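forwarding from the other thread:

> can someone predict this with D-glutamic acid?

sure thing
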Amino acid sequence: MRIGFFDSGVGGISVLHEALKQLPGENYIYYADSDHVPYGTKSKEEVKQFVFKAVEIMAEEGIKALVVACNTATSIAINDLRQQYRFPILGMEPAVKPAVEKNCSKRILVTATPLTLREEKYQNLVSRLGHAYLVDGIALPELVEYAEKFIFDPKEIRPYLQTKLSGYDLTQYGTVVLGCTHFQFYRDGFTELFPKDTDIIDGSTGTINYLRKTLAERKMANQEGQGQICFYSSGKKIDQDQRYRDYLRYLDASMSISELNMQ
Ligand code: DGL
């Protein structure tokens, strides 16, 4: 059986990319809710409805585990999803915890969608760590739109980030957390703007490490798959999936993964 990856759009492809590296022997369904992206500027109730519909379709297709590769959907729906389905469901949350563990003296900047930052799950995460005074949050919803349009040209992205960050003293941050999976495409843009010693981190590796562990513990791992991916867009299976594969290719530094996903 396949592993399901879900996001409002193309952001979760960055997490799938990590899964292809760590778990090349699995097969995958990638579901983008393209009719409803972006989630981050919508209401909680709306997003919850979209997420449930998408997961229902994925469950009908048959998945053995689900990665909600979307921080926004995780904060809204993960607990309720776990109550409804029996397969393991892994979510994503802004990597504040690893940021705090890594760096205790300098401030942490969490970049995410407006909905993620507003949600109780994030608020609790920050206050539970007892480091609320060290953590600032900034919503960058336009980056989601840029990613959906495959706009990665630094000439467009740089001025946007510069404007959004203009009120911040960037030297005070030891870590920048990419708390939205769409933002992982812009890692270089962040690296360029912050001082050299600033860590730019995301939750992908941690999530996929946890997925690997979960599959092994439940004896659900597959070594015989070929990293095949079947793409869905808001309920419809995509046959012309070049657009999605272009995102994988954009992230790909390694030939072996490119080749794997060219088939
Ligand atoms: N990729 C998503 C996240 O990680 C949501 C982006 C959006 O739809 O606004 O939060």
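Residues 96-201 form a domain with the Rossmann fold fold (CATH 3.40.50.1860). thats all i got for now
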